Amino acid sequence: MKDHISREEALELLRKYNKEPFHIRHGLTVEGVMRWYAGELGYGDDKDFWGIVGLLHDIDFEKYPQEHCLKAPELLREAGVGEDIIHGVVSHGYDLTVDVKPEHEMEKVLYATDELTGLIGAVALMHPSKSVMDMKVKSVRKKFKNLNFAAGCDREVIQAGAEMMGVELDELFDKTIQAMQSCEAAVDAEMKDLGLEE
């Protein structure tokens, strides 16, 4: 697997179709999470590729919410993005908007962690620190069970993603917390550099 687009070009492309700071932050966070998992799972040489898929995964969500993962291939192809990245991006909409199944381990990780980063981020906002640095698995587990909390985060997708990856939910929670801890400071700094602090 190799990228056909630089990280700078990918960020520019994300920002072309996404203006909301929340969506940019989510893209940057998922990028960092994907890079961490690449290293953790023995794909360190591919961490830039994994990160770019994470950065671009919601490229069409803000502008085309009704066509999420359906519009993405067109936007990405126009920008000269390779089919391997496009498949990775589209597969996270499996069984929701598309029938493109996550096949590569990278795609399974994206599928499992995308919604979960949103849930963990929402739990962090409840903490005095507003940070994931002091996050515990039990806090996430408790909020996961409360379906009224961060109701937009699809628990069934998170559960199905854990099964795809062959891990228990608590392990997925723990690793994704670690992944978010690894990139929180960098995401905050980049949001500031972009003038997009919420």
Structure notes:
There is one protein chain. The chain is an all-alpha fold and 198 residues long. It has one domain (7-190). 63% of the residues lie in helices and 0% in strands. α1 packs parallel to α3 (47-56) and α3 crosses α5. It is globular. The protein starts with 6 loop residues before the first helix and ends in a 5-residue tail after the last helix. The model has no long low-confidence stretch (mean pLDDT 95). This is Hydrolase. GO terms for molecular function: hydrolase activity.
What are its keywords?
single chain; 198 residues; mainly alpha; 9 helices; globular
Could you give a short description of this structure?
By secondary structure, this protein is mostly helical. The protein contains nine helices and no strands.
Layout of secondary structure:
Blueprint: H1 7-17, H2 21-40, H3 47-56, H4 72-78, H5 83-91, H6 105-126, H7 137-145, H8 155-165, H9 169-193
Helix pairs in contact: 1-3, 2-3, 2-6, 2-9, 3-5, 4-5, 5-6, 6-8, 6-9, 7-9
GO molecular function: hydrolase activity
Organism: Hornefia butyriciproducens
Keywords: Hydrolase
